[in-house]
Amino acid sequence: MTVAPEQRCWICGATGLEIAKPGDLERALDSDAFAITDSHYGRTAEIHRCRACGFLQCSELDAALAYYVELEDPEYEEGRAQRMLQMERLLRRLPPPAAGARLLDVGAGSGMLVEQALEKGYRAEGVEPSRWLQARAVEAGLAVELGTLPNPRLAGPYDVVTCIDVIEHVSDPAGVLRRIREVLAPNGILAIVTPDVRSWAARLMGWRWWHFRVAHIGYFDPGTLRRLLDGCGFELVELHRPGWYFSADYLVERVGRYLPDWIRLPNPAWLSSITVPLNLRDSLLALARPKREV
């Protein structure tokens, strides 16, 4: 196995990472390659494996954040109804909010979780680096700030901070969690969702797993996620396998990506009206609290 001695693990800091998968990008990267709905499954930059903790990362995409600023993804908004169901389901894992409880969604997209949190009684707001997605949230009347943490307009303490499908997109996940800890109340809750690279689906599909794609540059499993949380001052409280919702036409189209072109057929229009709950148990939902100071 070829070794990349100059690379350092984003989780444990070890050096001498090995190349687990060569890169197979077909063109120069731009913001379109980082679309939330990108379906070029299995196409990634070069992936390195840490020999100390097993974490997988695309070390050479350590400046990926810049691509998200100009990201536009209209297809993401087309699935808003199903994604709203996903966010509502995730929020069920949290205790009912006390009066005046504050929630911050990091990587808020167009504000779907913020909207669901408001309906549940939170004083909810978010932060999002994509100008286009943040503008969609503002158009919907949602308090989503443009940018990342720290943000002078987002002062804690927050009772809940959510980070849904974010840490796999960043080259400094520890930095993200430390900044979250700075705005989270001492007894607050952090909720993280990320794909599980050691799930049965990931092992079955190998490098063709649907979460191996350009935008995902860090690949967690329960062990590396726990290690990240611990190193950033969090105690893991619960670990779940969240399910998702999709329109039937979306699912059929995505399954078709694994089939030869001659087998693919146009989707009947009526499929778009059907919502399908799906849980392949290949995602992790971690609930954590700040460690108590000794």
Question: What can you tell me about this protein's structure?
Answer:
There is one protein chain. The protein has a single domain (3-243, 279-290), classed as Vaccinia Virus protein VP39 (Rossmann fold), CATH 3.40.50.150. It contains 9 helices and 14 strands. Strands 7-6-5-8-9-14-11 form a 7-stranded mixed β-sheet, with helices on both faces. The chain has a 5-stranded antiparallel β-sheet with strand order 1-2-3-4-10, with no helix packed on it. Strands 12-13 form a two-stranded antiparallel ribbon. The radius of gyration is 19 Å and the shape is globular. The chain has helices spanning 65-69, 74-78, 80-91, 112-119, 131-139, 173-183, 200-205, 222-231, 248-256, and strands at 3-8, 15-21, 47-49, 56-57, 102-106, 123-128, 144-146, 158-164, 184-195, 218-219, 234-240, 244-247, 275-278, 283-290.
Taken from the alpha-carbon principal axes, the silhouette is globular
Approximate strand percentage: 25-35%
Q: How are the strands ordered across the major sheet?
A: 7-6-5-8-9-14-11
Q: Compute the gyration radius: what is it?
A: 19 Å
CATH superfamily: Vaccinia Virus protein VP39
Q: From the helix content, strand content and strand pairing, which structural class follows?
A: alpha/beta
Number of E-type strands: 14
Give me the strand/helix succession: EEEEHHHEHEHEEHEHEHEEHEE
How are the SSEs placed, and which strands pair?
Layout: E1 3-8, E2 15-21, E3 47-49, E4 56-57, H1 65-69, H2 74-78, H3 80-91, E5 102-106, H4 112-119, E6 123-128, H5 131-139, E7 144-146, E8 158-164, H6 173-183, E9 184-195, H7 200-205, E10 218-219, H8 222-231, E11 234-240, E12 244-247, H9 248-256, E13 275-278, E14 283-290
Parallel strand pairs: 5-6, 5-8, 6-7, 8-9
Antiparallel strand pairs: 1-2, 2-3, 3-4, 4-10, 9-14, 11-14, 12-13
Helix pairs in contact: 3-4
